[in-house]
Design goal:
By secondary structure, the chain is an alpha/beta fold. It has 2 domains: 4-79 and 146-217 and 304-362, FAD/NAD(P)-binding domain (3-Layer(bba) Sandwich), CATH 3.50.50.60; 92-140 and 219-302, D-Amino Acid Oxidase, subunit A, domain 2 (D-Amino Acid Oxidase, Chain A, domain 2, 2-Layer Sandwich), CATH 3.30.9. The chain is built from 9 helices and 17 strands. The chain has helices at 11-22, 39-42, 57-81, 99-108, 118-124, 146-159, 204-208, 270-283, 329-344, and strands at 4-7, 27-30, 92-94, 114-116, 135-138, 163-165, 172-176, 179-185, 188-191, 196-198, 218-228, 237-240, 243-247, 252-256, 291-302, 309-312, 319-323. It has an 8-stranded mixed sheet. The protein has a 6-stranded mixed sheet with strand order 6-2-1-10-17-16, with helices on one face. The structure holds flavin-adenine dinucleotide. The site of flavin-adenine dinucleotide has 42 residues, from helix 1, helix 2, strand 11, strand 15 and helix 9.
Amino acid sequence: MQTVTVIGGGIVGLTTAWALSKAGVAVRVLERGAVGREASWAGGGILCPLYPWRYPDAVQALAWRAAAAYPELATRLAAITGVDSEWTASGLLILDGEPAAAAAWAQRWAQRVVACAPDEVARLEPALASTAGTALRLPDMAQVRNPRLLRALRQALVQRGVEIREHCAVSGFDVASGRVTSLHTPQGRLPVTGPVVVAAGAWSGALLAELGAPVPVAPVKGQMLLFEASPGLIGHVLLRADRYAIARRDGHILFGSTVEQAGFDKTADPATGERLRADAVALIPALARARLAGHWAGLRPGSPAGVPVIAPHPAISGLWVNAGHFRNGVLLAPAAAELLADLLRERVPALDPAPYAWPESTR
Ligand SMILES: Cc1cc2nc3c(=O)[nH]c(=O)nc-3n(C[C@H](O)[C@H](O)[C@H](O)COP(=O)(O)OP(=O)(O)OC[C@H]3O[C@@H](n4cnc5c(N)ncnc54)[C@H](O)[C@@H]3O)c2cc1C
């Protein structure tokens, strides 16, 4: 197969390049800025959808295949690059769980959910503000330190000989005889002979719009705080009222996140930061004394029900998309990449690709 060009160097583009490269396919990645600095960097790295039972089967299928693949991916990347992406099975503690829905979900998807009375919650997480009611503990859920995972992936790709071209924004496509022949870049027209995969995150919908069959992917802003706290202050990823806290091994605690319709605006505004800080202190009072080390925003690739499109373009041969992973792209990426790579190489995929097809309404 001729060289595959992947547009976008976030977690989805990099894992796609990794899956293809491991299968022996030559790949190059074109990235508008620096690799791994957009949503994939801004996110939290929780390897479980929040309130996972709320998601459709198409997300579940990718999620649990990817979650199972993560330990080996992290170990392999660390062995190749020396970069530890800190995959950690910290478990997820949901303080406002929905027990009946959770039980049905756990049975259907073979996951473990443990109900915890308030005294058990206090024993597990003494830094939490006191809680009433039963919490749900998902002991197998993990997290990854996403900026390090991105660094490891980048380095592993370079070591495999994958070309990563940064500061190379694709602004358009030349199409002849039903296939892409070149890409418009600031450096001029870049000829392509092999397949092209659009993995441009929140920008994928806008980039593909000119080609007549748009994908329903649009930005959804999320703001996040970073605290410097003591290692071990909390253990589980904690979730309440759609706000979560994630402790890294070195004591940093991420707290997020907002869900905002703000177009492509990525401003981290002080008023929202203050609200997030108040929510964080309400959940973990000791954070009132912790130094605030960061506040940022990222643009999630929003899509209907959070289901990504992983499919060939309906009319242009050799043009593919892997985008729209919304709130779960760090989690879903390895399974989405595997599916894209299998389809592109005409292999029978492990998952049914039908739910991720280019939407009918745009054909
Ligand atoms: C606050 C926040 C918290 C989150 N928490 C989690 C979480 O805990 N767990 C989880 O699984 N997910 C989480 N997510 C979601 C997750 O981050 C995204 O779903 C995921 O990063 C999407 O990856 P991506 O590669 O598609 O997009 P991105 O990481 O945005 O990468 C797309 C890349 O394409 C590049 N690009 C765009 N246009 C072009 C172009 N024209 N030419 C060349 N390059 C281009 C961009 O510069 C960018 O580098 C969170 C997101 C946010 C914002």
